[in-house]
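Appendix B. Raw example, untouched.
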Amino acid sequence: MTWQDIFNTILALIGCVGGAGIIIVAIVKFTSDKIAERLLKKYELKLNKELESFKSKLDNKLYVSKTRFDAEFNIYRQLSESTVLMVKEVSQLFPSFTRDSRTDINTYKEKYGLALDKVVIAQDLLSANAPFISKEVYDKFSELEKKCKDQLYAFTDFRLRPDAKEYIEECRDDYKGAYKKTAEINNDLNSLLEDLRTYLLSLDVM
């Protein structure tokens, strides 16, 4: 075999391998493009799901600064405390779970004075913080305050006026209604506190 024969053989082999290489490269490129396209679609689908989940969480959360959160938390804590104490004392005017066996006017005046003090404190605190809370929350506190004041007025008629016994006989239904309102006030308080708890849990500090 001459060098020319060897050279021709090598060229033939290179030609064969080259043609096959081009086909192989083309197949690999086509296949990899398809795989990449499928992976990209799968990744985009995953990103879209995560984005929707994130949007849902954003919708259910109100993002606030730490300063605002601390301020709101402090306001609601003070309002809750004063309102709980108000309801506690007012509930003693017409107690739901114990019989009212008090008969002396001094005891009645003392109970009235305690309840009145708590109502005034709650009223002033609510008025002072009115600009910093939502109208919806303000209205709920205000309505509870009004019902407590109604109990004070009723107590004045049914316990403190000189002809209280006669007045009770004349207004028996209203007298019984005052005791029922005690339970109503306590239910309203529990509902208000639950609303506040839900609202505060919806906040997320940035």
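End of appendix B.
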